[in-house]
UniProtKB/TrEMBL annotation:
Database matches in PROSITE patterns: ARGC (PS01224)
Associated pathway: Amino-acid biosynthesis; L-arginine biosynthesis; N(2)-acetyl-L-ornithine from L-glutamate: step 3/4
Known EC number: 1.2.1.38
SMART domains for this protein: Semialdhyde_dh
PANTHER family the UniProt entry points to: N-ACETYL-GAMMA-GLUTAMYL-PHOSPHATE REDUCTASE, CHLOROPLASTIC-RELATED, N-ACETYL-GAMMA-GLUTAMYL-PHOSPHATE REDUCTASE, CHLOROPLASTIC-RELATED-RELATED
Name the UniProt record assigns to this protein: N-acetyl-gamma-glutamyl-phosphate reductase
Domain named Semialdehyde dehydrogenase NAD-binding: residues: 2-140
Length: 344
């Protein structure tokens, strides 16, 4: 398969290159950047020297790049992928967007939270969270790859919501991310003295991943979900730990909770059930496509507390995109992704 990466100079793009260059069924034919056009990508990312020295191109010629690619992976800020999707709409090229443009069923929700008009409302698109949407991803023209905090949080809560074990109006998600989640461009809150030896929340009650998590959990349980989501920035480069709380429905016990996780995930290679009482850590998944999940029950408050850990750049972005690519190509989902985490 010939694949191209739009926005290859971003962190998600760089991680896509790492994974796709090692993928036995993918050939990376075009990589783009507007700020480093005509420069070898290995000048921007010296860790790729001698492995991939392809010159970066501008996306101004996206039709030619599209015509030369079976798949286009897009790693641009929100609001840019839909223009590409529209331009390539009549071509056979398939699109995997790592941003948010194609994640919502209702583009009005996107417009409300992302504050930009949606310009490709009638796009044939599917939500790209493999464990939930495999059959639709298989033949999709456009895959809206799930977000990073959202992947960790949805996977943690899905079995509880699916089996109706919790009151869906009581869900609280407290998530922590490494700073690569914010992208490569310089921003004051991510400047070393602001970040190092510090721990801070942001986006309280306003973060854009809130409606995405609500949409997926509503789809799974069939009951409208409204929840609280609070993200935090941690002074590490990669990783997300999501701590999710919900009130158990009457009569639900430890055994029912544990059974729900095993029923949903026992056959999922990338979900590692660490079990009741376990403490997943970001370091146990670093550089890999795994999502580790552990659950706890507080019998005093009748709350279930679920912990999930992912690498934001892998299962939260590029790895998930490659998993979706594998499904869309009819390949084994693990192709190019059977990587042990980097430890320590
Ligand atoms: N980082 C993460 O953990 C995750 C990121 N994502 C999503 O992936 C996408 C990329 O994120 P990330 O890699 O972190 O972002 P970065 O900021 O690191 O990279 C952004 C990329 O987009 C390009 N770009 C920026 N502005 C424009 C523009 N106006 N027109 C064309 N190209 C532009 C940049 O290229 P250049 O400046 O060289 O032209 C660069 O290649 C986003 O939608 C993000 O939400 C999803 C999940 C996790
Ligand atoms: C730490 C940090 O800043 N994280 C980003 C995560 C969002 C992101 O990268 O976008 P996706 O929606 O494509 O996952 C943020 O909070 O905006």
């Amino acid at each position: 398969m010939k694949v191209s990466i739009i926005g290859a100079t971003g962190y998600a793009g760089a991680e896509l290159m790492r994974l796709l260059l090692n993928h036995p069924d993918a050939e990376v034919v075009h990589v783009t950047s507007e700020s480093h056009t005509n420069v070898p990508v290995s000048d921007v990312y010296p860790h790729l020297k001698g492995i991939y020295d392809q010159k970066l191109e501008s996306l101004s010629d996206i039709k030619r790049i599209g015509a030369d690619s079976d798949f286009i992976f897009i790693g641009l800020p929100a609001g840019h992928a839909m223009e590409i999707g529209r331009t390539l709409a009549d071509m056979p090229t398939r699109i995997i967007d790592l941003g948010a443009d194609y994640r919502f069923h209702d583009t009005a929700v996107y417009e409300e939270w992302y504050k930009v008009p949606h310009t490709h409302k009638d796009a044939e698109r599917v939500y790209g969270l493999a464990e939930l949407n495999r059959s639709k991803i298989k033949n999709a023209k456009i895959i809206g790859n799930a977000g990073c905090y959202t992947t960790a949080s949805i996977l943690a809560l899905a079995p509880l919501v699916k089996e109706h074990l919790v009151d869906v109006h009581t869900i609280v998600i407290d998530a922590k991310s490494g700073v690569s989640g914010a992208g490569r461009s310089a921003k004051l809150p991510n400047h070393f003295p602001e970040l190092y030896d510090n721990f801070k929340a942001y986006g309280v009650a306003t973060h854009r991943h809130t409606p995405e998590i609500e949409q997926a959990l509503t789809d799974i349980g069939g009951e409208k979900v409204l929840l609280n989501f609070t993200p935090h920035l941690v002074p590490m480069s990669r990783g997300i730990l999501s701590t999710c709380y919900a009130q158990l429905r009457e009569g639900v016990d430890e055994a029912a909770v544990t059974k729900a996780y095993h029923t949903m995930y026992d056959d999922e290679y990338f979900i590692r059930l660490r079990g009741l009482g376990a403490y997943p850590e970001t370091k146990y998944v670093r550089g890999s496509n795994f999502c580790d999940i552990g659950w706890h029950i507080d019998n005093r408050t009748r709350r279930v507390i679920v912990l999930s850990a992912i690498d934001n750049l892998v299962k939260g972005a590029a790895g998930q995109a490659v998993q979706n690519f594998n499904i869309a190509c009819g390949l084994d989902e693990k192709t190019g992704l059977a990587l042990a985490p980097v430890y320590p």
